[in-house]
């Protein structure tokens, strides 16, 4: 795979987007994983949500007909469709909740070889301003559910308590709900670029457009799709490195037990059907 410097030399920005917006795992189904976590059960053929409704025959109480042996039997007057039970459990949520608690259930301790004003400031930023313990939990939860997530650190201009302008460090957890995101790695496995693709309102025309944001170690590239033409602006990366923490896993956290989960939910649903007398 070409390095990011070679990719960015491509004159057609649309091709740059196509190259960089490729997932590291082929066939990743983030939306399906998230739906299953929230209770949808249609991801597999054996999922309880794919149960077919039951067709039952309807017979008349007053009309009769003869069977093959000449006996009088109630006359069939039609069929009816009865919805079957599709009971789902909270197994995926329980597995994710337990795994996150094991990872970040205790207190977060930050230690240094020696303490000074800088270390105290760092603790204050990480623990109080950024609230990193809660951020780490959300980050881990997203990875376990959607199989990938990223922490985006960025500078934000604010007005300090003394009324002066200041720059504060902020962090955001990236997930499916706030757009697509793709890391790019060089031949040695080091991340040399990170790309976000999302929709937002352009303040110039108050219309929604496709945005692409690319960060490398030395620059931030923002491009807007204006009716098929990419309008690009480039700014220096003040961090001097890619300000992203990225993590992924092959499959959702509960994937090892999906066959057992399907079997349990199917049997519970059949039990409900039996109790409902059909």
TrEMBL record:
Taxonomy, superkingdom: Bacteria
Pfam family, one: SPP1_portal
Protein name listed in UniProt: Phage portal protein
Organism field: Parabacteroides distasonis
